[in-house]
Amino acid sequence: MNGMNPDGLPDRADLVRELRHLRRGGLPALQALVPEALRAVTLHAGYADGEDDLADGAERLIRAAAERLGADDLIGRAAQCTFGLLPGRRGDPAADRRRAAALVYGVTSERFRHSQERQVVEQLAGAVLAEAREPRGARAPRPTATGARPQQTPGARPAVVPRTGLPGRAGNRPVTVHISPIELLRDIDVLVSSENVHLEMSKSFRPTVSGALRRSAVVGCASEGPVADVLADELAAWVRARPGVLPLRPGTIVPTGPGALAARGVRRVYHAALAVPDGLAYRVDPQHIATAVTGCFARARQDRADGLPGLRSICFPLLGAGRGGLDRRTSVEWLRWAIEDALTADPDWSVHVVTRYPEAARLFEAVPPEAPEG
């Protein structure tokens, strides 16, 4: 290590070199050895009190630094992939982690290695130092090694904490509300994704439900052969088998398998064709949300009959509230009304709703609205 700066922190160049080496070994390598610069910054930042918790503290610090870069930012998302910070990816081989990071940018692993990877590591090193320089009283509570946070202390900045399993209602019918990225959910049989009427999924690096599910469903080991873009590939095969079918009628549901999401207990992904191209943007008619919800329940009943016994739970995002252009309140009102109607006709389902926005989740606690006028 070249030395310490006047503030007691190591040089950024030293930290960059150590993070590049750590990228190859992965976070589990910290249990054997925490390198010198990372050791110094972990202790300085108060993420560890001594040798006993140094390895876990260094991992907590790296996670906090990646959060600073932002999960919806390309560099932040690529940093999470590069260092195995996403759920279930901590022990992935280096080649797999690099491949996942390359998918964020939509480039090959080799292109990523020669270009974006250097920037990702350098930015993460900067975020580690920024986290260490922030006064401890203004810092969010330490994340655990698995990414969860303890209860926030008074005066700390708000943390984005996934909260799942909250009771809610769609009219007079119970639903379970999750404040979380959809790809972090577990043990829900069917996840619903919103697509455009041409069944073109969002790019995997986009901060959308479609992009998140596409990215999380990728199957394969880059060190052993090609990686399969499962959801997009299955949708493309569905379209090829039906010449002339596009554009789909808004509200149409197309099912695919779960790809790698199967490891999280997901059995199917239902793609709701809702967004209609409108110049350079999209538009969604809120009435088509009701059509899509009805179609999802019909499709699930058919899947049950066709060989998926035990299919029971289904999760909806706020359909049309992203690039579809609807405000979240409108999406919630139509979604809530449509779910209530579907459960009244067929109550044998466990229904979940997922959103990143607490204010949208609270709308499922409100007095049920009248059915929207169409």
What topology emerges from the helices and strands here?
Blueprint lengths: L11 H14 L10 H10 L8 H16 L4 H9 L11 H12 L3 H6 L1 H18 L29 E8 L2 E7 L10 E7 L12 H8 L13 H11 L11 E5 L11 E11 L2 E3 L3 H19 L7 E4 L11 H18 L4 E6 L2 H5 L12
Parallel strand pairs: 2-8, 3-5, 3-7, 7-8
Antiparallel strand pairs: 1-2, 4-5, 5-6
Helix pairs in contact: 1-7, 2-3, 2-7, 3-4, 3-7, 4-5, 4-7, 10-11
Question: What would you say this structure looks like, in words?
Answer:
It is a single chain. By secondary structure, the protein is an alpha/beta fold. The chain has 2 domains: 12-138, no CATH class; 163-365, Leucine Aminopeptidase, subunit E, domain 1, CATH 3.40.220. Helix content is 39%, strand content 14%. The protein is built from 12 helices and 8 strands. The chain has helices at 12-25, 36-45, 54-69, 74-82, 94-105, 109-114, 116-133, 209-216, 230-240, 287-305, 328-345, 358-362; strands spanning 163-170, 173-179, 190-196, 252-256, 268-278, 281-283, 313-316, 350-355. Strand 7 (313-316), helix 11 (328-345) and strand 8 form a beta-alpha-beta unit.
